[in-house]
């Protein structure tokens, strides 16, 4: 009887063992499928906050390099971080960034609700920080159709041209008011007035000057500084008091960085000026329509955007659902931090001498400017949340740099140097605003008189 009972229990035992083996295999496979990105050692409560520093983009780049695999990659393409109570995925490789904003674009199109963004972004309802959904799509369509479409930009070209001419005229007047046509110029306030007036003309048809423009600059820079700053409440949702950091990031900063690079590389400035003198000559002010005929100028702007991106960390995305990036599991609610600064200096991403200012790198063998798809850059982001104002920004930066080089001789000044230190915050201004000696070229006064 015992033998009969044993033989009767054998199938049940075999079934139990088989089920256990299958269940173990499934769980093991699921663990492999849900494997998260590698993560550095963390501390209780702080997570990885102790590994961060100023400037943030450099600290994150160093962290990625420290976690890279020798002989495989200089920097870890993706890292899993814990910033206080928040999960974050740090992306430091171009391929991983493209995957985030193409294949995983819909899953990662959310925005984290951060304290300063909620206050300054009207409860996270503006186009930059609005949650992905119907409201964001309505804003996107409005901006794309009513303000930033090709037809709208073309219709406002005369306004932008007038503001370029106004800045040149103001510089000319200030330079010629003195005993000699030489003047030390701090560019940032003048560039801010130029950019804000272009925006105001497009929105409400008015412009600001003098003290009004200066006051607006204070308001905008303070707002951007606060908007760029994380708070304790962002990292520990139970707490709601802020620790603010500095920073600002607008088109004026890119123009300022471009002029600083040209001052440090006078041969590059001579090439830009010679190109403009050849194609535009000196009878009129360079215009937006001329930019297509100025390939070296285009390369200077591209190289500035690569080397000195004023948005070194792409505005944070948030995972709206579980997904994978680079083969690693990303949980819903994870904040996505893409380090554009690191990607655009990555020697493994087809950049020769990545820390050097070399505009020629964007020219192909035929002397034509390489297309955006051919280079691992993302200064305006990628995917559906790519900056909608990219076309306007490129027009503003290119036309203003061209006008400053066309109309004035620039010099650092005797015994002076340019401080290329990067400012703090999530944007990347020059820590010390650029100041340089400005001397009008002989034809500028007559050129402006003929154009009015």
Summarize, please:
The chain has helices at 2-33, 56-66, 94-101, 115-120, 134-147, 150-155, 157-176, 187-204, 211-227, 232-235, 251-264, 266-279, 295-307, 340-343, 390-407, 444-451, and strands at residues 78-83, 86-91, 183-186, 317-318, 323-325, 328-330, 335-338, 408-411, 435-440.
Description of the structure:
- The protein is α+β, with helices and mostly antiparallel strands and 452 residues long.
- It contains 16 helices and 9 strands.
- It has helices at residues 2-33, 56-66, 94-101, 115-120, 134-147, 150-155, 157-176, 187-204, 211-227, 232-235, 251-264, 266-279, 295-307, 340-343, 390-407, 444-451, and strands at residues 78-83, 86-91, 183-186, 317-318, 323-325, 328-330, 335-338, 408-411, 435-440.
- The strands form 3 sheets. It has a 4-stranded mixed sheet.
- Strand 1 and strand 2 (86-91) form a beta hairpin.
Mind sketching the topology for me?
Blueprint: H1 2-33, H2 56-66, E1 78-83, E2 86-91, H3 94-101, H4 115-120, H5 134-147, H6 150-155, H7 157-176, E3 183-186, H8 187-204, H9 211-227, H10 232-235, H11 251-264, H12 266-279, H13 295-307, E4 317-318, E5 323-325, E6 328-330, E7 335-338, H14 340-343, H15 390-407, E8 408-411, E9 435-440, H16 444-451
Parallel strand pairs: 2-7
Antiparallel strand pairs: 1-2, 3-9, 4-7, 5-6, 8-9
């Amino acid at each position: 009887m015992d033998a009969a009972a044993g033989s009767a229990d054998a199938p049940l035992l075999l079934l139990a063992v088989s089920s256990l083996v299958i269940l173990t295999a499934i769980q093991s496979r699921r663990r492999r499928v849900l494997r998260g990105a590698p993560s550095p050692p963390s501390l209780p409560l702080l997570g990885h906050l102790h590994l961060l520093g100023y400037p943030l983009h450099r600290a994150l780049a160093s962290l990625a390099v420290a976690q890279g695999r020798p002989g495989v990659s200089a920097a870890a393409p993706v890292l899993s971080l814990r910033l206080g109570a928040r999960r974050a995925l740090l992306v430091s490789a171009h391929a991983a960034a493209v995957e985030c904003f193409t294949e995983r674009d819909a899953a990662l199109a959310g925005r984290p609700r951060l304290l300063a963004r909620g206050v300054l972004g009207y409860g996270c309802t503006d186009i930059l920080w609005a949650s992905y959904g119907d409201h964001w799509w309505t804003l996107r369509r409005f901006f794309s159709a009513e303000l930033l479409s090709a037809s709208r930009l073309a219709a406002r070209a005369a306004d932008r041209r007038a503001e370029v001419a106004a800045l040149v005229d103001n510089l000319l007047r200030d330079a010629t008011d003195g005993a000699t046509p030489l003047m030390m110029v701090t560019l940032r306030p003048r560039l801010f007035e130029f950019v804000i007036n272009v925006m105001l003309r497009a929105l409400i048809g008015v412009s600001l000057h003098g003290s009004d423009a200066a006051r607006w600059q204070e308001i905008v820079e303070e707002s951007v500084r606060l908007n760029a700053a994380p708070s304790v409440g962002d990292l520990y949702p139970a707490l709601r008091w802020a620790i603010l950091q500095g920073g600002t990031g607008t088109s004026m900063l890119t123009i300022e960085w471009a002029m600083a690079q040209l001052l440090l590389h006078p041969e590059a400035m001579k090439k830009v000026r010679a190109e403009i003198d050849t194609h535009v000559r000196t009878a009129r002010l360079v215009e937006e329509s001329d930019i297509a005929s100025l390939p070296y100028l285009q390369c200077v702007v591209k190289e500035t955007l690569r080397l000195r991106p004023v948005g070194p960390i792409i505005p944070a995305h948030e995972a709206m659902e579980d997904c994978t990036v680079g083969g690693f599991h990303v949980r819903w609610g994870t904040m996505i931090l893409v380090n554009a600064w690191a990607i655009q200096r990555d020697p493994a991403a087809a950049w020769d001498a990545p820390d050097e200012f070399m505009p020629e790198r964007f020219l192909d063998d035929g002397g034509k400017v390489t297309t955006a798809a051919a280079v691992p850059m993302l200064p305006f982001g990628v995917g559906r949340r790519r900056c909608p104002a990219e076309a306007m920004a490129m027009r503003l930066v290119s036309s203003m740099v061209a006008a400053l080089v066309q109309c004035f001789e620039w010099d650092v000044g005797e015994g002076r140097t340019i401080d290329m230190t990067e400012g703090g915050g999530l944007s990347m201004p020059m820590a010390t605003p650029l100041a340089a000696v400005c001397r009008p070229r002989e034809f500028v006064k007559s050129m402006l008189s003929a154009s009015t």
